[in-house]
Design goal:
The complex is a heterodimer. Chain A is an alpha+beta fold. Helix content of chain A is 16%, strand content 36%. The model of chain A has no long low-confidence stretch (mean pLDDT 90). In chain B, strand 2 (29-35) and strand 3 form a beta hairpin. Classes of the chains: A alpha+beta, B alpha+beta. Chain A binds chain B through residues 244-246, 248, 250-253, 255-256, 259, 262-263, 266-267, 276-279, and chain B through 14, 22, 25-26, 49, 52-53, 56-57, 59-63, 66-67. The complex binds fe (ii) ion.
Chain lengths: 279, 75
Amino acid sequence: MSVTMQDHWYPVALASGLRRSARDTLLLGRAIRVALDDGGAPVVTAEGRALPVQVKFGHVWTTLGVPAGDVFDIPEADQPGRRLVEVGSVKVRCSPLRAVENFLDIAHFPFVHTDVLGSEPHTEVERYEVEIRDDVDEVWATKVKFFQPQAARSAQGGITTEYMYRVPGPTCSVLYKTCPPRPGEWDVITLFVQPLTETTCEVWPWMALFDDDSTMTEMIHFQQLIFLQDRSILENQLPALLPLDPGREIPTRADMLSIAYRRWLKRHGYTFGAQLVAA
Amino acid sequence: MTERFIISGRLDGSLLPWIDGHARRIGVAVDFGPRSDSAMELRVDGPPALLDAMEMGCLLGPIDVWIEDIRREPV
Ligand SMILES: [Fe+2]
């Protein structure tokens, strides 16, 4: 039996944000309810049917289908000394796949996050490597290097930052970024996307950082600032669905990761939020 | 610069006219070589960055085609 988008895990709430009063929301177009049971454990139901639940990375995860295993791991996030940053959620009027694809768009830093994550004239993307890791069925990009004026709240002045990107599920992405205060370690910045409908999503960024200087509020605000810049781009993209062919676009070598993500979606038939007619 | 692109996959469907159109959009010259439903050869001529762009575009390809792999060789 092949794995469909229904069989994957999706974030549907922050565990710390759950109250006795239920949170009514959507998952892949279906109404679901997230609540706490009498013992204080999270429960997710769809039309009264209890769905599988896991709590990981501070979030409540569920699935409408039969998952092949647990929610994916991020081993680095378990290292002692990291600050775990629950950013909360932002609703975006765009395809859940577009939200991930934008996160994977390396070339957008200098244009969308001007003077924070990139700046002109440092707009060139150096050659990087992309692979599908067959054992885990994940998309990975490594050796991504970029000049950034201020790569994180803890960064002083401009530096060349190295990144790795990972797609462990159709609507989840993990970014690993060299960590200014701890050479040799990677900061972990995730984008967990809850697909509400094919053209709306709720984005749950989460981070596991080495940063002893910033307050939690400062780290949350830094991430929110960056994501709000993305949101205005995302809500204006046409078509609203993510095309799985280039259409009028001319992808270049810098877009190799976006191409790999879209090919991976196409090969698996992960098409909730994808445009299936020629772009 | 001229390269041979050896494309493999499920190549029935609209691939040929699509490659023609995409090459025109990018501005590279394409000659079609031998082909079957699972493999085809192209000679692509243009500057290196545009040959890369041609490879990227073809890897995604039209919606009804699956490109498994593109091997590039100097001619
Ligand atoms: Fe962004």
